[in-house]
Write a structure and sequence with these properties.
By secondary structure, the protein is α/β, with parallel strands linked by helices. It has a domain of 217 residues: Aldolase class I (TIM Barrel, Alpha-Beta Barrel). It contains twelve helices and ten strands. Helix 8 runs parallel beside helix 9. The radius of gyration is 21 Å and the shape is globular. Keywords: Iron, Iron-sulfur, Lyase, Metal-binding.
Length: 357
């Protein structure tokens, strides 16, 4: 990788056109030349936090491929910058690009705890596990400043309501005090995403995420505190991390994880263009091989939307990956089981305190 050809600390290396916009923006050569002459930076590469005010915070999940009924996202966009992230496309709905905008324009929902509490207090609401976050990471760098995720966890604890968490950031350990209280009543489960044991691979795939060492330590600390952990080996990308399935499973099992899950990478919408541009810059020696193998998993295309196929793929390479995961589960998780969360307490605590009469 040529360090002069990349934008440091970012996954995407360009802003692709927003398919919902008639107009597009580009940096012209004459503008770049002007900046060079004037000694100015054409792109300051700064992260912006922008407040947004949605009317609701919990979404019903209708996809049969996703193991959740409800999700909530405190942030839209994600500074982690994972190049493969399926959530990039959702940034276009907000008027931004799925490329660099997704990593640098973070939309912050400061009213999330209030909106969550309003929902949990409704007489019509029946407890189902709500997952933070189904789209972007609830413990991304913005959480250090805004602490919205922590405030939402306190709401879940107050109303004794089950919550699932998906993250790849060790920042979750900041909230160990609340998580331990939730775990006492079997009200929390954590999903940690670990895509590789190689720091070099992590740095190019997920530039602003926690190190692999920190993530494995996070699994260990949570597990030792009786907080159930599932590890997502996701996504599996042929010829990038597909050879690591068994060692990854072994490492997370030894750290205390109760189960693993996986997906095979799919590059829908704008992500195909973003990923293709990235891999030709980051891994030019194997770019074509990787792209062709991804296509092999999805009927000859990078894009896969069919329910039942999009997460697991099809074809010879996909079968090899899926068979390896099955073997990993048999080898390292044979006597382990992920718990089912408790939905029985919330009704009693709906008014915020235990009813005695």
């Amino acid at each position: 990788m040529n360090p002069k050809s990349i934008i440091k600390g970012r996954g995407a290396q360009l802003n692709v056109h927003n398919r919902f916009f008639e107009l597009s923006h580009e940096q012209r050569d004459d503008f770049l030349e002007f900046c060079h002459i004037e000694g100015e930076e054409p792109d300051k590469n700064k992260t912006q936090y922008l407040s947004v005010f949605p009317k609701t915070i919990v979404n019903k999940v209708t996809s049969p491929d996703v193991g959740m009924m409800y999700s909530m996202n405190m942030y839209q966009g994600c500074e982690h910058g994972c190049i493969y992230c399926y959530a990039r496309n959702s940034h276009e709905f907000w008027g931004y690009s799925a490329g660099l905008d997704f990593e640098r324009k973070i939309l912050v929902k400061k009213e999330a705890p209030k909106l969550l509490e309003q929902l949990l207090k409704k007489k019509s609401w029946q407890a189902h596990t709500i997952v933070m976050s189904g789209n972007t990471d609830c413990y991304q760098p913005a959480e250090k400043q805004f602490k919205i995720t922590r405030d939402c966890l306190n709401v879940f604890l107050k109303y004794k309501h089950p919550v699932g968490i998906i993250t790849k950031n060790a920042l979750i350990l900041r909230d160990l005090d609340i998580l331990k209280e939730l775990a006492k009543d079997n009200l929390v489960a954590v999903n940690i995403s670990i895509t590789s044991l190689s720091e070099k691979t992590r740095q190019i795939l997920e530039p602003r995420t926690a190190t692999i060492k920190k993530r494995l330590k996070t699994v260990e600390v949570l597990s030792k505190n009786d907080i159930p952990v599932n590890v997502m080996l996701a996504p599996i990308i042929p010829s990038i991390n597909s050879h690591e399935i068994l060692p990854l499973a072994k490492a997370v099992s030894e750290a205390g994880a109760l189960s693993i899950g996986h997906t095979i990478v799919r590059l829908n919408g704008a992500i195909g263009e973003i990923f293709t541009d990235w891999i030709k810059k980051a891994l030019p020696d194997r770019a074509e091989k990787v792209l062709h193998q991804i296509e092999n998993c999805h009927g000859g295309t990078l894009n896969e939307s069919r329910f039942g196929k999009r997460m697991r793929g099809e074809g010879e390479i996909a079968k090899q990956i899926n068979d390896l995961v099955k073997l990993a589960k048999l080898k390292y998780f044979k006597n382990k089981t992920m718990v089912k969360l408790n939905t029985s307490l919330h009704k009693t605590y709906k008014d915020g305190q235990l009813k005695l009469f």
